[in-house]
Amino acid sequence: xxxxxxxxxxxxxxxxxxxxxxxxxxxxxxxxxxxxxxxxxxxxxxxxxxxxxxxxxxxxxxxxxxxxxxxxxxxxxxxxxxxxxxxxxxxxxxxxxxxxxxxxxxxxxxxxxxxxxxxxxxxxxxxxxxxxxxxxxxxxxxxxxxxxxxxxxxxxxxxxxxxxxxxxxxxxxxxxxxxxxxxxxxxxxxxxxxxxxxxxxxxxxxxxxxxxxxxxxxxxxxxxxxxxxxxxxxxxxxxx
Length: 240
Fold this sequence. Notes:
Blueprint: H1 21-52, H2 60-86, H3 95-103, H4 105-113, H5 117-127, E1 134-140, E2 148-154, E3 180-185, E4 188-191, H6 192-213
Antiparallel strand pairs: 1-2, 1-3, 3-4
């Protein structure tokens, strides 16, 4: 299993209490968005690898999971882009900021193109394209990464079409078993593999920055989860 992008000891989880509240909130929001991208991308990647390397049949619910994760990468990256641009003291001329925003610009283009679903229905019918877009990918099937399974997915049937052909461009050099996963929608496309890489590099930049700025930080940005065990028929006080 791939290691998470944000580990339990990440400096993004070790911000001192005396950090400016607005800055701390933005950094916390960035961390969560990065985790959304990472968890969704790796779940998507794992499913695609399992499909390519086994003869097991996949189900409609798994198809929905693939598309859900693809769109979560888009939405979380767009949220991250907004927080990065809002973060105080992060110069617009910082190379890491410029590279991240440039590398993920296609995310905003796709996001803007699908903002209004009501208008999309008529357009997708006319153009014979899926309402929720299509996913294409390549998965290496040999250790040398010279042979690949190419795949494509759309949700729902389209009258008048002859099927969805997996037209996949494999980048060179191939450095991963899943070199490309692309979401296509509204005439736009986003390479989710490239997007995940850009988010990972940004996380690395901020982890190094925070580790240097707060070398002795020990407080944590703890997530909170609460559960309560309740017996039906009892009052709040527990009396009969």
